[in-house]
Write a structure and sequence with these properties.
mainly beta
């Protein structure tokens, strides 16, 4: 299993970012997938997840209405569109299955300044 997250960066509050997760080494389309994040000093949390076909999604309350998760099974890729970013969204973002595999990618840093 290999997971490569990208698309993070340093932005100002109110800006947008689109994260990507490129997966390989497994049959991506059969797994329920999610985006997780870990802020400094906090536990990793699941912020959004998506069903195998992409027809069902769910979000943690704090990102509801601002983040949109999607996937393209033909490209073994998952996305997280993040709008109206807030300083409290600052974290390292990871993709993984739901429930998670033992392997984690390197993540992508998102930093939102006020």
């Amino acid at each position: 299993v290999q997971l490569v997250e990208s698309g993070g960066g340093l932005v100002q509050a109110g800006d947008s970012l689109r994260l990507s997760c490129a997966a390989s080494g497994m049959t991506f389309s059969i797994y329920h997938m999610g985006w997780y994040r870990q802020a400094p000093g906090k536990q990793r949390e699941l912020v959004a997840h998506i069903s195998t076909g992409g027809g069902s999604t769910a979000y943690v309350h704090s990102v509801q209405g601002r983040f949109t998760i999607s996937r393209d099974n033909s490209k073994n890729t998952m996305y997280l569109q993040m709008n109206s970013l807030k300083p409290e969204d600052t974290a390292v973002y990871y993709c993984n299955a739901v429930p998670t595999w033992d392997y984690w990618g390197q993540g992508t840093q998102v930093t939102v300044s006020s």
